[in-house]
Amino acid sequence: MSRSSKKGPYIDPKLVEKVQKMSRSGDRKPIKTWSRSSTIIPDFVGFTFLIHNGNKFIPTFITENMVGHKLGELAPTRTFRKHGVKTKESTTLR
């Protein structure tokens, strides 16, 4: 279920403050964040975010196509290992 359109998108206030501060100074170093639920707004375009996935920080450069999505969508939390391998022994037991 999505957030009410009456309330508007959720954006972490500290994150917006960091982006505004960096845009005023002209600095383009990566912004480290744990706020995966924040919505990407047009002010974020052109910045690199280090999004935490629970284990490490994933570097992500924000483009115009990403506006409206959540930061958490860009840093997957689960890694797919692989399905079990079918061997001769497992087929002969049936």
Based on CA atoms alone, the radius of gyration comes out at 19 Å
Shape: elongated
Strand order in the sheet with the most strands: 1-2-3
Q: Identify low-pLDDT runs.
A: none
Q: Sheet with the most strands?
A: 3 strands, mixed
State the secondary-structure class. Answer: alpha+beta
Helix percentage range = 10-25%
The string of secondary-structure elements, in order, is HEEEH
Terminal CA distance reads 44 Å
Beta-strand percentage? 5-15%
H/I helix tally: 2
* Mean of pLDDT: 91
The count of DSSP E runs of length 2 or more, i.e. the number of strands, is 3
In short:
By secondary structure, the protein is α+β, with helices and mostly antiparallel strands. The chain is 19% helix and 14% strand. It has two helices and three strands.
